[in-house]
Please model this.
Amino acid sequence: EIVLTQSPGTLSLSPGERATLSCRASQSVSSDYLAWYQQKLGQAPRLLIYGVSSRATGIPDRFSGSGSGTDFTLTISRLEPEDFAVYYCQHYGSSPLTFGGGTKVEIK
Amino acid sequence: QVQLVQSGAEVKKPGSSVKVSCTASGGSFRNSAFSWVRQAPGQGIEWMGGIVPVFGTLSYSQKFQGRVMITTDESTSTAYMELSGLRSDDTAVYYCVRGAWVRDILTGYPTPGWFDSWGQGTLVTVSS
Model:
């Protein structure tokens, strides 16, 4: 089973700042099988990124994904008020599919 | 745009079973992958298992093997998840999710990939 460790647990930033979220895998993630989701309180998660760096339909270009092997990053170039939420990474392509523990991006 | 509508909240006794439905509209039901994930209160997300209807391939998390059953009815574009032997720590919101399928790295079989559509969630409470 691939264990995904996200850091930091909480990121305190101001609107307009850059957010850098990390996702580290316990073993190499093959074929770029990594996705990122955003979840707001009381809502279902929403797909942001798949295949490490491909933005999902309707996702603004301030969201970008990068990385390879065991180290992956989600970057939000300039935080908008609606971006304050919890973010999860997920690997797929081998069972079990697993999620990271999440990073909460909160308003400073 | 794909929409997933799940059945309503359930309250169950320990040891019983629950069956949650998920009806899809829009997109290709047959050529999608459907999974069930759950999220306990204030906790992270856990994948339980998934199915790729066009190939009939099923995969389950070992954690739930023997307790969970995922099925689909293509005639009604509905996916089902049945969880048996309920315990108090099964109390969670259960989500039906749909997305693309990819080739399993080890077996080459079709398996769920990323999740681009989510149901509204079904709260299952297990309490005596």
Summary: Chain A touches chain B through 26 residues (CB under 8 Å).
